[in-house]
Every structure is written in structure tokens, then in C-alpha cells.
């Protein structure tokens, strides 16, 4: 098995960090895992579409979907997806009330798709 | 994502097979595309796994452009996420600068291969987690067959090792070819490569002196200038434009080579004439 966080095989052009490998490892170890993927960005969002983050029910995180601005909010929303199995499409951005709440200070806007693994 | 789909995605990754993951954003339905080369080649053009044909076309385009995209298919929004094999970096010469360059390239997501027939140099102890090939560069390079997602850097200073590698690199679609060496060394090398049948236009693809001009002195600084130049070329930055090299490879020639280079259209032209990269 590949080491989490190390490039291995193929990681896409977006990131050297192999979030899928980490997520698969967590799942194999019996953890409940949700995957968050940036699917669309506008303005100065720091991470391109395709950026991924894995979150466990226990609160472990790997990868990122922003420059640290919204990871907390995504991890929180992930708990609901982990509980129900229903995917979510989250909107973050300056036009959104949550912008203040989550502090997307970059002024960017992005959509994040959340799904449960398994 | 189902565990089965994740497993198939990771299998494709391990096999270095380009695939795209298509996700319907309304309900999370997913397809891996192309799924199975045999079934995807059905006469009706429809993917074997039941995905709409338009989705397969979008997946192929996303893979080709190596960029994620959003498409609407049959009234639903889909996210197409390409997973291409990593860019490759082939380093000829397991030398001190290579020791600094390799970890930087790994950090940037490159699959790195170090080629050096000299056994004392190409040791795992010196390089760790990369592919080491202890063969002559011409044999090794021929087997690795550089493509448009491959960068080649020669670092040995030894014509016996560097020249065959550069010869093969120039005959390939490698998106970046860099050769360590001073301007004088580079000029001598041009003479030798010319004898191997490469003209000025072809040789303009070689970055030498290698690396962006950051006045690098130490091995890690030189490595940094090289990896930064590779990224600049890859991303189509103005800094990645071919430099005006020694021996009269003038601006027009450099521009022509830039236009023919794979990748994105470059930014501004007009680099300073004297852009000595890493001294060597």
C-alpha cells in the first residue's frame, strides 16, 4: 500500500498528495470516510477544481479544498453526509452569508461536492 | 463513491491509465471513463458501463486537457475529474544537484527516474524513493520513451552520458529538456548534437544554461531554478519561454520553438538576452 501523503502511481496534475490512497487506507482500517472535492471556482479561490479532502467521522483530515478558509465548515458538513449517506453540494463565497461565518478571506467563491466513501 | 469504484480508480492509477471520474452533482451517481477500452469501442460509441456517450466525450476531452470541467448531460450537471498519470522527470546523472532536485520534484508530484550507469552514484541511499536505472542513458531513455508529459534534465557534464540522452530527448515530445553546463559547454555540445543530425531549431528546445536565472550558487539553489523552470514551461508562464541561447539562437528562433512546444500558449515574449541560469 502506498504511503499517505506521498505521490504514488498517479495523483492527477492538481496535487502531489494522494488523498484517495489516504482515504482508502482509513476506510480499510474501519473508519467512516467522506470525500470533499472542489468542483467549481470563481475569482481568487486558492485551490483548483479537482482538489480533494478526506474527512473521517473521528475528525481526521487529509488534503484540502481551500487555503484553510473553509476546511472546518466542510468537515462539519461531512459529518451529516457520513451519517445519512446523502451527498451534498456546498456553496462558499462572498455572495453567501456563510462567507462571513467561514471566513473565505480570499474573496473567492467555490462549490464543494461531499460524498460518503462506501 | 462506492468502494468498488474507488478500487477501480486506484487500479487505473496504479496501471498509469488515464481515466476521468464523472459525478452527477444532483445525486452523486458516478462513472469511471473510459471504463473498459474493449467495451467503450462499441460500434454505437456508447460507453460499456451504461454512461451517456456525451459523458465519455467530455471525459476524453478533460483527460486530453488535463483539466476538470463541468458539463450538462441529459439535463443534469456533471463534474468531470480527470486523473492522468503523473508528469515524469527523467534525471540523467545521479550527482549532487540531482540529490537536491529529486525531493523537490517528488514534492511537486513528479514521478522521478534517475539514470546513471556509475554504480557508486546511483544508490538508493542517496536517492530513496525514486526509480533508479543503472544503465547507459541511451538504453534507459529508449526504454522510457519520453512523451509530452515528460521532462528530461541532464546533469553529468559528461558528453558520454549527457549527449545520448539529449539526442533521444530531442527526438521525443518531451515538454522540457534541460542540460546543465556553462555557455561554453553548451556551445560545444551544440556542435556534437549537430553532428548527430539536430539543427538549430531542434536544439533551441534545450534549456542551457539550465534553470531560471535566480543567480543560483549552491546545489539546492540550482535544483530550485531547474524545477521552477520546469513548472514555468508546464504552466505556460512567460518565464518559461525559451531563452536566447548562445551561438546565435536568436529571438525569432526561440519564439518559433516556443510556438512549436507542446503545452499552453505562452505569455509575454521578450526575455532579457543574458539569462545565465545555474552556473556550472
In short:
The complex is a heterodimer of chains A (118) and B (280). By secondary structure, chain A is α+β, with helices and mostly antiparallel strands.
What portion of residues of chain A is helical?
Answer: 10-25%
Please give the alpha-carbon distance between the first and last residues of chain B.
51 Å
Uncertain spans of chain B: 245-280
Pairing-aware structural class of the strands and helices of chain A?
Answer: alpha+beta
Oligomerization status of the protein chains: heterodimer
Question: What's the overall geometry of chain A?
Answer: globular
Number of helices of chain B: 11
Structural description of this entry:
Chain A: It comes from Roseomonas acroporae. Chain A: It holds the Pfam family XdhC_CoxI. Chain A: InterPro entries: MoCofactor_Util/Proc, XdhC_CoxI. The complex is a heterodimer of chains A (118) and B (280). With 118 residues, chain A is of the alpha+beta class. Chain A has one domain. Chain A contains three helices and five strands. Chain A has helices at residues 19-28, 71-84, 98-102, and strands spanning 33-42, 52-56, 61-63, 88-93, 109-116. A five-stranded antiparallel β-sheet of chain A has the order 3-2-1-5-4. In chain A, strand 2 (52-56) and strand 3 (61-63) form a beta hairpin. Chain A starts with 18 loop residues before the first helix and ends with a strand. The relative contact order of chain A is 0.21. Mean pLDDT of chain A is 80; it is low at 1-14. Chain B is α/β, with parallel strands linked by helices. Chain B has two domains: 3-83, no CATH class; 88-260, 3-Layer(aba) Sandwich (Rossmann fold). In chain B, the strands form two sheets. A six-stranded parallel β-sheet of chain B has the order 7-6-5-8-9-10, with helices on both faces. In chain B, strands 2-1-4-3 form a four-stranded antiparallel β-sheet, sandwiched between helices. In chain B, helix 4 crosses helix 10 (219-235). Classes of the chains: A alpha+beta (118), B alpha/beta (280). The interface between A and B is medium-sized, with 29 and 35 residues.
Amino acid at each position: 500500500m502506498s504511503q499517505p501523503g506521498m505521490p504514488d502511481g498517479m495523483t492527477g496534475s492538481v496535487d502531489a498528495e494522494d488523498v484517495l490512497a489516504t482515504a482508502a487506507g482509513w476506510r480499510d482500517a474501519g473508519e467512516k470516510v467522506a470525500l470533499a472535492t472542489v468542483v467549481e471556482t470563481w475569482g481568487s479561490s486558492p485551490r483548483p477544481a479537482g482538489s480533494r479532502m478526506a474527512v473521517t467521522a473521528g475528525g481526521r483530515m487529509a488534503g484540502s479544498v481551500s487555503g484553510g478558509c473553509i476546511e472546518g465548515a466542510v468537515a462539519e458538513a461531512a459529518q451529516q453526509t457520513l451519517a445519512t449517506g446523502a451527498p451534498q453540494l456546498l456553496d462558499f463565497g462572498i455572495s453567501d452569508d456563510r462567507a462571513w461565518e467561514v471566513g473565505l478571506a480570499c474573496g473567492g467563491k467555490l462549490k464543494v461536492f461531499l460524498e460518503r466513501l462506501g | 463513491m462506492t468502494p468498488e469504484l474507488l478500487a477501480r480508480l486506484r487500479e487505473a492509477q496504479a496501471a498509469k491509465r488515464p481515466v476521468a471520474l464523472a459525478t452527477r452533482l444532483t445525486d452523486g451517481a458516478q462513472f469511471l471513463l473510459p471504463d473498459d477500452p474493449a467495451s467503450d469501442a462499441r460500434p454505437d460509441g456508447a460507453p460499456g458501463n451504461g454512461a451517456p456517450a456525451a459523458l465519455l466525450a467530455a471525459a476524453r476531452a478533460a483527460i486530453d486537457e488535463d483539466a476538470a470541467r463541468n458539463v450538462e448531460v441529459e439535463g443534469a450537471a456533471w463534474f468531470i475529474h480527470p486523473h492522468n498519470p503523473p508528469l515524469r522527470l527523467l534525471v540523467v546523472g545521479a550527482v549532487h544537484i540531482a540529490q537536491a532536485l529529486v525531493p523537490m520534484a517528488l514534492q511537486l508530484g513528479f514521478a522521478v527516474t534517475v539514470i546513471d550507469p556509475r554504480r557508486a552514484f546511483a544508490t538508493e541511499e542517496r536517492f530513496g524513493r525514486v526509480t533508479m536505472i543503472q544503465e547507459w542513458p541511451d538504453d534507459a531513455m529508449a526504454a522510457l520513451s519520453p512523451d509530452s508529459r515528460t521532462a528530461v534534465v541532464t546533469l553529468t557534464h559528461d558528453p558520454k552520458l549527457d549527449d545520448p540522452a539529449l539526442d533521444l530527448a530531442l527526438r521525443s515530445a518531451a515538454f522540457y529538456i534541460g542540460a546543465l553546463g556553462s555557455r561554453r559547454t553548451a556551445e560545444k555540445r551544440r556542435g556534437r548534437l549537430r553532428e548527430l543530425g539536430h539543427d538549430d531549431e531542434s536544439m533551441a528546445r534545450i534549456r542551457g544554461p539550465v534553470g531560471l536565472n535566480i543567480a543560483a550558487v549552491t546545489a539546492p539553489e540550482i535544483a530550485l531554478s531547474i524545477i521552477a523552470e520546469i513548472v514555468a514551461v508546464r504552466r505556460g508562464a512567460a518565464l518559461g519561454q525559451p531563452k536566447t541561447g548562445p551561438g546565435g539562437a536568436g529571438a525569432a528562433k526561440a519564439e518559433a520553438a516556443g510556438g512549436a512546444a507542446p503545452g499552453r500558449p505562452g505569455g509575454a515574449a521578450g526575455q532579457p538576452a543574458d539569462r545565465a541560469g545555474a552556473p556550472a
